Amino acid sequence: MSWLPGKKYFEGGICTVTRNMANQVVIVTGSSSGIGLQTVKGLAERNATIVLATRNKAKTEPLMDEIKRETGNANVDFIPLDLIDLKSVKTFAQEFKTKYNHLDVLINNAAITYLRSAKTFTKDGFEESFGTTYIGHYYLTRLLLDTIRKTKNSRIIFSSTKSATKTPLDWEDLNAEKKFSNLAASVQGKRSSLMFASELQRRLESDSVKVVSFHPGWVKTEGRETADNPTLVKIMSKIFGFFMLYFGKNAAQGAQTSLYCTLEDWDKLKKAGYYSDCEEFNYPPQEDLRPENTQKLWDLTDKWIKEKLGDEATFSYEKNISYEKVAIFL
Ligand SMILES: NC(=O)c1ccc[n+]([C@@H]2O[C@H](COP(=O)([O-])OP(=O)(O)OC[C@H]3O[C@@H](n4cnc5c(N)ncnc54)[C@H](OP(=O)(O)O)[C@@H]3O)[C@@H](O)[C@H]2O)c1
Fold it and tell me: CA 152 to CA 148: how far, in whole Å?
């Protein structure tokens, strides 16, 4: 479709950074489709050791063969991860640590992207979008922080959406107990992740870890529908999908900024930076990205996880930091 007039504009930025990633270990969550899968392919081409962190073994194994065949890279691994289940997250981290002693890049990519007409919950009782995008990745990152911190020039990358840079957190209804909308729940998960990224970077100030977030663009990926969607929603979704063929990116184009954040020279990446179309995207400072709020969310999330897992809740990295410490976002 690139031949259509104006189409190139919507295909967005291309990652032109070429870096050999031999001996570097990368985890990509939700890499069984869409942007995650294309990111994995791009990194496999650059010789990285990839860990596909996905929940569906039957879907993932043929993809591993495909990636190895297409890229000639045999260092493609799979460790099961279901982000809606905190115990699965913990098992993933344990298995990862038995196999690998360093982690160069963690890409928190997975999310609920299909339409839901009714609210659904994770195994631990969180609204599913918030629970997957934010809580699952929060715990995963916390569990892997010891390995990430001891790896020189490591990075933690969050897949975000631009709406999350302007929509404040709804503190009164974090888990969508009072009202639910699919879109709002998704943005709430992404906003929380943005706050987490900011707080993480602040706490890792003295470590060689960069934490960044990125918007992939509007990308035509699988966009599955749940069976319970009313016919009208299904029709609207098909119409939207049709327009996305022209106005959107395909998955490989959508993976460009994720690749950029992974491949760009470590020194050039901005701490707690936000990227879109392979360049920095600046958004105005906001109240709930102030340290007292990001720390509040961190503490609250720790509390929730401890409540859900009881004695089984462990964190690889505990560090208290004062509210007064200079904030990245101010
Ligand atoms: N597409 C866009 O226009 C767009 C725009 C802004 C941001 N994004 C973000 O980009 C990221 C990738 O989205 P995409 O468009 O590539 O969508 P996608 O093709 O639907 O990919 C989502 C991935 O997340 C995985 N996932 C969902 N729930 C999971 C769970 N509980 N545990 C482990 N993995 C789980 C899915 O696995 P299964 O295959 O097992 O379901 C799938 O591999 C998401 O974070 C999304 O919010 C996308």
Answer: 8
